[in-house]
Amino acid sequence: MSKKALLVIDIQNDYFENGAWELVGSLEASLKARKMIDHFRSHNLPIAHIQHFAVQGNIPFFHEGTNGAEIHENVKPLEGEKLIKKNYPNSFRETDLLAYLKAEGVTEVVITGMMSHMCVDATTRAAKDFGFECTVISDACASRDQVLDGKTVPALEVHTAFLAALTFFYANVVTSEEYLSA
Asked: Could you tell me which residue ranges the Isochorismatase-like domain spans (predicted)?
């Protein structure tokens, strides 16, 4: 029998308006993630909140001790919910996420968070490689414009391309409404 856990990846203040690395659609995505959190809480299913911290200035945001690194108020963990601190895009790297999921008997992870093209992507691929079935909630994730060879790729295209790539092998990708009505 399948047991699900929700991963809430890096929904932190720096990704919101006036933050150090604002994403497109971060507020809307956080509200969809909150709906997922409420659903998992109401069914007493495990939730892992994941919080990224920059290591020695390797990124221009999420510096420990700053407001920007704090988890956004829309998705704050409750007392007793798992909080995992990480320093790399892959939420499993040098954390206890895998051990936590195994201890909880989890076989499927439902993934929300930021950024679609970085930590959501890296964590989803790692989760699948560790044998978990993966579902990514597309409207509970956000991205930002990217630049390659002088060409700007709009955030929505980045978001769509990365999630579309995950559907080939790594994950089922659905909206929050599709997931919650299933």
From this structure: 5-176
Q: CA-CA distance, 58 to 54, in Å (whole number)?
A: 6
Quote the tokens at residue 1.
């029998």
Per-residue pLDDT reduced to its tens digit, 125-134:
999 999 999 9
Answer whether 0.85 is exceeded by the pTM.
yes
Tokens of 11: 């929904």
Q: Could you tell me the pLDDT band of residue 57, with boundaries at 50, 70 and 90?
A: low
Q: Which of 57, 78, 81 is nearest to 69 (CA)?
A: 57
Domain boundary assignment for the chain: 4-181
- Does the domain at 4-181 match CATH 3.40.50.850? Answer given as yes
Q: Dump pLDDT digits (tens) for 95-106.
A: 999 999 999 999
> Residue 156: which of 142, 169, 166, 167 has the closest Cα?
142
pLDDT greater than 90 at residue 24: yes
Residue with tokens 């990480």: 86
Find, among 59, 58, 56, 38, the residue nearest to 47 by Cα.
Answer: 38
Q: Which residues contact 92 (CB under 8 A, 6 or more apart)?
A: 98, 123, 126, 127, 130
Q: Is the pLDDT of residue 171 over 80?
A: yes
Contact in structure between 138 and 167 (CB atoms under 8 Å): no
The helix-helix angle for 121-129 and 155-166 (nearest 10°) equals 0
